[in-house]
Amino acid sequence: MKAAKLGATPGINYIELADIQDPGQPAYGEIRVRIISNSLNYHDINVANGVLPSNPGRLLMSDGAGVVEEVGEGVTDFNLGDNVVSLFFPDWSDGEAPLAGFSRTPGDGLDGYATSHVVRPASWFTHAPEGWTHTETATLPTAALTAWRALVVNGQIKAGDDVLILGTGGVSIFALQFALMAGARVWATTSSDEKAKWLLKQGVAGVVNYRSEPEWGKKILEMTGGRGVDHVVEIGGPGTFPQSIAAARIGGHITLVGVFTGTYGEIPTGTIMGKQLSIKGVIVGSRTHQIDMIRALNASNIRPIIDKVFPLEDITAAFEYQVSGHHIGKICLTTD
């Protein structure tokens, strides 16, 4: 089977494309899945580049979608031919997260889904949304579930709320879609006038170009009539956090889901207290969260925004395109 593995030297240019042994038949409680598509996340590129250290030879990619080819004894949730999608935290079924970090995350601490076939415990998957392609489904485990947990599970979003998204990456675009589905009003930042036009066409109420408006938090505050937003889906970390705080309403919610600008920095703690903000760090979600999200997707007309699809053999080119920042929504791989 073809597979993409972490090389002995970290870096997307050192990813190894190799043939690996077929995983064979499933044992008790396992299923054999033909993986057809993966989606790229910044977590994946951080593993590939060695920012998140992993073992050489590790199968890459946390997100995998495909079809069940064999079912082991004792499996009752899945049947032959079912379309399925992986979990970012395969050991987190429900309740509180069982551990910190990524030691049990596929494509990081465990082998991922950058290959054509896997045999894994059935509990490591959920059913795919009805009628979705495998490429569409592959966008869900990391980006979509992060946005879902930020707004729906933790944020308890409701109609009439104001939501701020930063940029046009996968998490932000799913947050836009979930917010509109809930009847909320969405505001956005971007560095591109072309992307700003695209966002407005999607139903965003207003966009601020953060390059021409460095104090974009104050601008969002003005655009909301001085009230501020109820929810900020914060992907940047220390470089954007002060402006997100400025944009939030008194008593608002900021969910930190990314640290693209770094992991350390100065934060205006006095303003956080003065505004009585709720701030929560979120890393994806549980199997129950994913099942609930897919149930909601089956009841909606949401479909993921997929910018570009690369064959698995072009995984380095896919990561290079991701780094360029030219994409809107998700970038995917296909092994089919």
Automatic annotation (TrEMBL):
This is NADPH:quinone reductase-like Zn-dependent oxidoreductase. GO terms for molecular function: oxidoreductase activity. InterPro entries: ADH-like_C (IPR013149), ADH-like_N (IPR013154), ER (IPR020843), GroES-like_sf (IPR011032), NAD(P)-bd_dom_sf (IPR036291), Zinc_ADH-like (IPR052711). Residues 7-333 form the Enoyl reductase (ER) domain. Signal peptide: none annotated. It comes from Enterobacillus tribolii.
